[in-house]
Amino acid sequence: MPDPPPFDVPESALAAARRAEGLALCPECFGRLFGRLGHGLTNPERAARLRAALGAPGADPGPACVGCAGLFARTEVWVERAVRAAEGFEWHRFTCGSRWEPELLAREEALWSDVGTEWGESLRSAFNRELGKQIERRSGAAGGPERPDVVFLADLAVGRVEVTVLPVYVRGRYRKLDRSLPQTRWPCRRCRGRGCAACGGTGKTYSESVEEVVAAPFLRASGATDTRFHGMGREDIDARMLGRGRPFVLELVRPRRRSLDLVALGAELAESARGRVEVVDLAPADAADVLRVKEASPDKSYRVGVLGDVAVAKVNEALDLALARAIAQRTPTRVAHRRADRVRTRRIVAARLVDAARGRFTLDLRTEAGTYVKEWVEGDGGRTEPSLAGLLGVPLKVEFLDVLEIHDTEGT
Ligand SMILES: [Zn+2]
Ligand SMILES: [Zn+2]
C-alpha cells in the first residue's frame, strides 16, 4: 500500500499527534483531534496521514476508544433509529442534531488539553455530520438546514432518536358567502373546547368555520393531525368576504404526506364548500408566508347597509366631512374582552353613497387596516369620534356588512 500523500502539518501539531499516539483512540477520534487541519479530508484520512508521518501504524481500539467509546463504529444503528422514527411520514429534506451527556463533552475538552491540540473538532459536530451523511445515503433524502421536512434528534444518553415532523403550508385566498361562519374554530366559552351541554358536546360555539371547511380535504389528503389557519385579518362572522378574497395560509400539523395535488384539492373544495366558501390561488407556502400574512396591514373596502332616516344630500355632506379628518376609535365594547383598551387613529380613505331608499342607504368605503366599520357608522356610545351617526345627528344601525376587497397587492 503506497503511503498516503502528506499534508501540511505544523510541527506543534505533529508533537501533539505524538502525545495522542499512546492513547486508545479510533481513527475517527484520532483524526478529529486535528479536525481543523487538512481541509477536505475525513477524520480517518487525517489519522492515516498523521500516523504515517509519525511512522506509527496505530490500532483501532473499537468500543475501548477513549474518545467515543466506539460510537463512530455504530453510526448505522443511529441511522436505523432515525429512519424508523420517521416511518410512515413523507420526507425529502432533513436536519439532524444530537443531545449529549455534558460529562462526555467535558471529557473531550480534557483530552484536547492533555494532548495539547488546538485543532480539535467537537464530538457533537463530527457525529451530527456523519449521521447526516449516512442518513442521506440510506434514505436518498437531502440533509441541510434549509427548509427541512423532518428534524432528527439523536439522544445519545437515552439511545433514542426523536423526530419532529415540520408542517406543510398552503396559501390561497378565500371568499366567504355564508354569514354564519366564523373564520376559525371558536372554542365554547363555557367548557373551553372539552364539550359540555351548552355546546352540545362539540366544544365549539359555531358548528363550523372557514378554517374547518377549507382544511377538511387537506387534512384527509395529508394525514395531518391538526390545522392552523392564518388569515390576513378577519371579517365579522356575519360579514361576507367578497372580491378577490382574503389571503390566508393553512398550516397542516404533522402531515404524513407532503406532496399534495393542489389542483385536485381545489376542485374537491369547490364541490364540498359550494355556496359557503370559495378558495382561489392555492399555492405551496412556507413559514415566512405566515409572518407575511400576519404582519400585512392593507386597506380594506366594504359595502355597508345602514338603517337610518336621512336625506341623500345630508349623507354626502357627512361623508365629505368624514374623509377630511382622522377618526379616533377606542377599542369597541364587543372586542374589549380580548383586546387592550386603547384609542387608535384611523382614516376613511374613500366613501361613496351607492343607493338610498326610505329608511336605509348603502355605502362603499375604503378604510385603513384596523378600522372598526360598524362602530364608525353607529358611534359605539361615543367611543368612535367622529362617527357617521354623530356627524348626521341621528341614530344609525348597520344592517349588513360585506368586505369587498383586501388591497394587499400593489395597484389594488
Ligand atoms: Zn472513537
Ligand atoms: Zn361547551
Produce the secondary structure layout.
Elements (H helix, E strand, L loop, with lengths): L10 H11 L5 H6 L10 H12 L20 H11 L7 E7 L2 H14 L7 H17 L2 E2 L6 E6 L4 E6 L2 E9 L33 H13 L3 E6 L8 E14 L8 H11 L4 E9 L1 H9 L3 E9 L4 H13 L2 E4 L12 E4 L1 E10 L2 E8 L5 H6 L5 E2 L2 H5 L4 E11 L5
Parallel strand pairs: 1-2, 1-3, 7-15
Antiparallel strand pairs: 3-4, 5-7, 5-8, 6-7, 9-13, 9-15, 10-11, 10-14, 12-13
Tell me briefly what this model is.
With 412 residues, the protein is of the alpha+beta class.
Q: What can you see in these coordinates?
A:
The protein has 412 residues and is an alpha+beta fold. The protein is 31% helix and 26% strand. The chain contains twelve helices and 15 strands. The strands form three sheets. Strands 5, 6, 7, 8, 9, 12, 13 and 15 form an eight-stranded mixed sheet that branches. A four-stranded mixed sheet has the order 2-1-3-4. It starts with 10 loop residues before the first helix and ends in a 5-residue tail after the last strand. The mean pLDDT is 93. One zinc ion (ZN) binds at residues 25-26, 28-29, 65, 67-68, 72. The site of one zinc ion has 8 residues, from helix 2.
